[in-house]
Amino acid sequence: MKEQLEAIRKSALDAVAETRTAADLEAVRVRYLGKKGELTAVLKQMGKLSPEERPVMGQLANDVRAALETAIEARSDALAQEAMAARLKAETVDVTIPGKKVELGHKHPMYTVLDEIKEIFINMGFEVMDGPEIEQADYNFTKLNAPENHPSRDWTDTFYLTEDSSILLRSQTSPMQIRAMETYGVPIRMVSPGRVYRKDEVDATHSPMFHQIEGLVVDKGITMADLKGTLNAVIREIYGPNTKTRFRPHHFPFTEPSCEVDIQCHKCGGVGCPTCKGEGWIEVLGAGMVHPKVLRGCGIDPEVYSGFAFGMGLERLAMGQFKISDLRLIFENDMRFLSQF
Ligand code: PHE
Questions:
Q1: 178-182: long-range pairs with CB below 8 Å, 24+
Q2: Exposed site from 204, 257, 273, 310, fewest CB < 10 Å?
């Protein structure tokens, strides 16, 4: 039995030394110290020994077990350390590699202009409203007093979404005049910016989609003087305090009287140049006193209330402000263009 125990000690210690992983080591432990292990099997034969031999062999068996346990524990620690070292090596992060640069964008030039304009109106006590781009013909035309045969109702001018011409992509932000009055009643002071759509051929100054900002003021005693005063103030905020304006008679179905407003060309001072196409003046917006029929249609008594409305194109404003020569550049989203602003 002595030889047997010594043989187990030797082969077990060799086996421990050869293990490469924690699983290997556990297998070795089970093989020698487990319930059906080799050392356990020898211990079970102790009963057959003589009373003199028994304590000696018992002592030896305990020594072997203790030696084995110590070796397993030491090997276990060593393997854990090896595993950690391997992991640290595999997962090293090179902190000296330069990081990935996060490119910070900035506002689109047209939205820079829009935000400035909103700010001007907010400071004058206007509310900013948002409205649908898919609109009813009723709101885009009929409630705005557009006659049935108005040319802008034509399928060649407006994008219709239904065969019966009842739903369309709004061709102007003016339907928001109606929606605002119907929803909030009077008095009211609001602006509403957004996209509008027309079947225009694309060129340097036209696009089938562009942006307008609509404005509406309705209260008791609002006159043409309020219209002129307000629009002059806004235009001078945008184009500078010395900007000259010109109010020209015009026609819109939903305003009476109506006008178009021009600014004197800031490039040539009114003499005429390519920027103003030789005119000396640049048209910036349409406006007028809200038509009594429109007020009545929204349940507002035109004998008591009056108001003015206006609409301006935002692209043209941005083009003037940033000296952009071609409208298409605003929508192409070419970074070489946009990063200049
Ligand atoms: N909706 C008109 C257009 O698109 C502009 C306008 C708005 C005119 C409000 C008068 C009042 O041309």
A1: 178/139, 178/143, 178/144, 178/294, 178/297, 178/298, 179/129, 179/131, 179/139, 180/129, 180/216, 181/216, 181/218, 181/295, 181/298, 181/300, 182/298, 182/299
A2: 204
* Residue 35, pLDDT score: 87
Cα 247 to ligand 1 centroid, rounded to whole Å? 14
How far is ligand 1, taken at its centre, from the CA of residue 65, in Å?
99
More confident position, 324 or 211: 211
Q: Give 316-320 contacts, CB < 8 A, sequence gap 24+.
A: 316/205, 316/284, 317/113, 317/117, 317/238, 317/284, 318/109, 318/110, 318/112, 318/113, 320/239, 320/266, 320/282
**What residue's CA is closest to ligand 1, atom 10?**
287
Please report the pLDDT score of residue 1 as a whole number.
Answer: 80
What is the average pLDDT value for the chain, to the nearest integer? Answer: 92
Q: What is the pLDDT of residue 219?
A: 98
What global pTM score does this model have? Answer: 0.72
Q: What is the pLDDT of residues 98-131, one digit of tens each?
A: 989 998 889 999 999 999 999 999 999 999 999 9
193 and 211 Cβ atoms separated by less than 8 Å: yes
| Å from CA of 126 to ligand 1 middle | 18
Amino acid 110: pLDDT: 92
- Shortest-distance atom of ligand 1 to CA 215: 9
Which residues surround ligand 1 with Cβ inside 6 Å? 172, 174, 214, 252, 255, 258, 286-288, 309-311
Which value, in Å, is the radius of gyration of the alpha carbons in the chain? 44
Distance CA 143, CA 107 (A): 36
pLDDT at 223: 98
Residue 36 CB partners (closer than 8 Å, separation 6+): none
211 CA to middle of ligand 1, Å? 12
